[in-house]
Specification:
about 400 residues, about 30% helix, alpha+beta, six-stranded mixed beta sheet
């Protein structure tokens, strides 16, 4: 009995010890990682954002760009290059090439041309046959006789149609004075309206004169009539030569063309008999302004100047009467052309030919060194290395535009 109680006591003691050991944490067991939590490793599909709602608010402003770094001081090489640039004058030479029949010649290349300045061949730096938009100043002579003016008025709508939507036109009229009828703009209905109202009459004959030396109706010697029976003091008409300021009109148009963009082909389109008298500016002064600003003169000779015989006589300068027709001089010196037409249909065709010729020219460019005063005239000669072709180009130029007051 005593032994059974002893065994029972030891059993309780062993049980208590076993329970105590199981409740004491094991340090080694705490260092083991816990089992990983199950996860879904399949990536979720990217969500598509809904389209933004339309808004009238302006978009957020972009951050202002950083201020540029201050420019570095030019070194000696850069300064030398700059000095070389300002001493070089780039010269542009529009050129028209025709065959012996007067047809425009296309398809020429840069190697077909040579340009001489003051007799020295220049290296062609620029060459193109692409057309250029036109800045055209139309100068209309309203001092011609009535019959000629009426004929010209009938052709003016065809003149507007000869220009494209990329061209710009200004309109001037002249007789004894110069008037700008329309400033530079594209050809619109307003331009057509201006053309329609140009109905000024020309001058026919002169004032009647009675008596005196101009009124004698019979020949006389030393103031005494040869035929005493002839009536004296008859009424005669003395032709009156009113001012015909063609030089002033071309000068006004050239000065306005000087302000137009340089990438445009600048031309003056004169419709006149070419007679000049009474202008404040002379031919040499006007030509200097034309050549300084690369302006070409094209003309349609009307009236008597369109007749072959009169056309040749008009080239003569009659003392105190001015030149009969100075349009060919302006055209030749500036690289333009003159079309002498008599009837209305021929005049309309001349408009189309002149604008086509002015638009479709070869354009040559070269660098000319400044070897003398900037206002010194320099001659230009364009040569084509193909036989049987005629060259229309300006005879020379002035290196820099004329400053005001010169």
């Amino acid at each position: 009995m005593h032994r059974a109680a002893s065994w029972a006591w030891w059993l309780i003691l062993l049980t208590a010890m076993a329970a105590g050991q199981s409740s004491t944490p094991d340090p080694a067991q705490d260092q083991l990682p816990s089992a990983p939590t199950p996860q879904n490793n399949i990536p979720k599909p990217a969500s598509v954002p809904p389209p933004p709602a339309p808004t009238l608010a302006p978009p957020p402003e972009e951050p202002a760009p950083a201020a540029p770094a201050p420019p570095s001081q030019p070194n000696e090489r850069d300064q030398m290059m700059y000095t070389m640039r300002v001493q070089t004058n780039f010269v542009v030479v529009p050129v028209t090439i025709k065959d012996y029949k007067g047809h425009l010649v296309e398809g020429l290349r840069k190697d077909d041309f040579a340009v001489l300045e003051d007799g020295v061949e220049q290296k062609i730096r620029f060459f193109t046959s692409d057309p250029f938009p036109l800045s055209a100043a139309v100068v209309l002579d309203v001092g011609v006789p009535d019959s000629v003016l009426r004929k010209v008025n009938e052709t003016l709508p065809a003149l507007a149609a000869a220009f494209s939507q990329f061209d710009e036109l200004a309109l001037y009229t002249f007789g004894d004075t110069v008037r700008k009828e329309h400033d530079f703009s594209a050809v619109t209905d307003r331009y057509a309206t201006v053309i329609k109202r140009l109905k000024k009459q020309g001058q026919e004959g002169g004032a009647p004169v009675a008596g005196g030396p101009l009124g004698q109706s019979s020949p006389s010697v030393n103031g005494k009539p040869i035929d005493a029976s002839a009536p004296q003091g008859g009424l005669v008409y003395v032709p009156y030569r009113e001012p015909h300021v063609l030089n002033d009109a071309i000068l006004a148009a050239a000065q306005d063309l000087a302000t137009r963009p340089k990438e445009r082909r600048k031309l003056i389109f004169v419709i006149s008999d070419g007679k000049e008298t009474g202008s404040h500016a002379n031919y040499a002064q006007v030509l200097k302004v034309l050549l300084s600003n690369s302006v070409s003169v094209y003309g349609v000779a009307v009236g008597d100047s369109s007749l072959p015989v009169i056309r040749d006589l008009d080239k003569l300068n009659v003392p105190r009467s001015g030149y009969g027709n100075i349009l060919p001089r302006y055209a030749k010196s500036t690289g333009g052309d003159v079309f002498a037409e008599f009837d209305s249909n021929a005049i309309e065709n001349a408009y189309a030919h002149a604008t086509e010729q002015a638009r479709n020219q070869y354009t040559l460019g070269y660098n000319a060194k400044s070897t003398g005063p900037s206002n010194t005239y320099r001659t230009i000669e364009v040569i084509v290395h193909r036989p049987g072709l005629r060259v229309h180009a300006k005879d020379g130029y002035y290196p820099l535009p004329i400053a005001s007051g010169q």
